[in-house]
Inverse folding.
């Protein structure tokens, strides 16, 4: 091989080496692509559509961070957080004192962040003439002490109870706030005749097709083909419909915060994600999905 040909060959090999190095370093501008981070997020079925919408929007802003969202109920999410398989648990109820104590025994503090507000709407079939109920009436209905709609001003029809399953934070909140009427000494339970649904969609479907049904669901899951009952704290008190305004002013009696829970104070990518959720972009999504934003 002549000297000139050797020079040309060396030049070609050098160019190929430089091109390969450029491609492996990220191509455009030579900037290295940030490694992908994954945040595991699990829990409340009430929050799952909201959490999915947050994750999708955040991926557009921070493509190097992947938020993986699954439901299963608040209790399922909290259990997964405690056993270390998720970074964030979604909960539509506050942690119990027993859960907080368990976390401490496991060597960490369970930190709750309020990320949105919600009303639990009481829903019936549109043909039901009942428009308003009191908390005591709802307690009597869901425990099975009242079993016919005529007992609360409706038609002579049997009441069909529709509820979430017991691992649901919505179930737990409704049990304490409505069935037990906020009384810590109450041992009241849901009627054993209640139909237990694994999801909000299950409640909607049953109420939509059953003229005798009554159920409860997060405000963001109420559809136009369900009738929302106005709720009064007691007989003679004003009956209030759930809405963002009545949740914020405290007049609707079955309202609650929605939480994201972490093992200790959040740091790094998790802290940044929670901060974004509580900021203007994240809270705009809360409003779009029918929940109540913090601001």
């Amino acid at each position: 091989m002549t000297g000139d040909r050797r020079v040309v060959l060396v030049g070609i090999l050098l160019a190929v080496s430089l091109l390969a190095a450029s491609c492996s370093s990220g191509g455009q501008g030579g900037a290295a692509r940030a490694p992908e981070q994954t945040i595991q997020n699990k829990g409340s079925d009430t929050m799952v559509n909201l959490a999915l919408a947050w994750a999708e929007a955040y991926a557009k802003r921070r493509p190097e961070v992947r938020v993986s969202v699954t439901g299963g109920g608040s209790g399922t999410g909290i259990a997964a957080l405690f056993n270390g398989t998720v970074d964030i648990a979604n909960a539509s109820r506050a942690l119990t004192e027993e859960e907080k104590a368990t976390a401490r025994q496991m060597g960490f503090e369970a930190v709750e962040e309020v990320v949105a507000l919600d009303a639990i709407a009481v829903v019936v079939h549109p043909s039901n003439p009942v428009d308003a109920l009191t908390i005591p009436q709802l307690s009597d209905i869901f425990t099975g002490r009242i079993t016919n709609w005529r007992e609360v001003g409706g038609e002579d029809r049997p009441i069909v109870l529709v509820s979430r399953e017991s691992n649901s934070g919505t179930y737990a909140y409704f049990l304490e706030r409505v069935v037990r009427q906020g009384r810590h000494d109450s041992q009241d339970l849901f009627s054993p005749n209640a139909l237990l649904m694994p999801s909000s969609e299950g409640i909607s479907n049953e109420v939509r097709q059953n003229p005798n049904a009554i159920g409860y669901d997060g405000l963001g899951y109420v559809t136009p083909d369900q009738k929302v009952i106005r709720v009064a704290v007691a007989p003679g008190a004003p009956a209030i419909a759930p809405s963002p305004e009545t949740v914020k002013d405290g007049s609707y009696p079955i309202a609650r915060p929605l939480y994201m829970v972490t093992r200790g104070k959040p740091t790094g990518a998790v802290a940044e994600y929670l901060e974004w959720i509580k900021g203007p972009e994240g809270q705009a999504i809360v409003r779009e999905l029918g929940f109540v934003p913090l601001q």
